[in-house]
Amino acid sequence: MTKKFTFITGGSRSGKSSHALKLAESLGEKRLYLATAQALDDEMAERIAHHKKERGDGWNTIEEPLNIAEVIGKLDIYDSVLLDCLTLWLCNVMHEEESDEKVIERIDNLLNACKGCKTKLIVISNETGSGIIPADPLSRRFSDLAGLMNQKMAAAASQVILTVSGIPMTIKG
Questions:
Q1: Which residues pair with residue 160 across a beta bridge?
Q2: Residue 166: left if φ>0, alpha if ψ -120 to 50, beta else—which one?
Q3: pLDDT in tens, 130-168
Q4: Angle ∠(99,89,60) on CA atoms, nearest 5
Q5: Which of 19, 50, 51, 95 is flagged as catalytic?
Q6: What's the whole-model pTM score?
Q7: Phi, psi of 20 (to 5 degrees)
Q8: Using an 8 Å Cβ cutoff, are 55 and 103 in contact?
Q9: What is d(CA 133, CA 147) in angstroms, rounded to the nearest whole number?
Q10: Closest Cα to residue 67, out of 105, 95, 102, 106?
């Protein structure tokens, strides 16, 4: 059973990661950053470097773009685990799985791993459904799947935080 499962959502560059880092650092000395991003271009490489610098010392890091459910099940030696971020993971999964059913199966497997995690888990995702309906089919598919994933995570989490303009607001728990 999860000691504490916190789900943090918000728009791009809203302050989610900064707040999550502070929260994780308050939970103990043994911290793990579980990264899903891949440096596939220069801009993403810069973002990853920025996040590494922001974390500083005192963090172990595992970079896993796809199989995070399997990794989460093996992390009980840590005081806290910060998973950043689900929407990048979803993009990675969508490139690997062609059907929505397979993607949803992966989401459900991850959700079960999060619910069964034996350490304090902080999960970050982007809130993608606050804008207009995307114009192209792939973007609409992503928005639909991200919305479903976020709803499932929020329902299962003991605490949900929405971050807007650098201000974290607890909306559950």
A1: 7, 172
A2: left
A3: 888 889 999 999 999 999 999 999 999 999 999 999 999
A4: 150
A5: 51
A6: 0.90
A7: -65, -40
A8: no
A9: 12
A10: 106
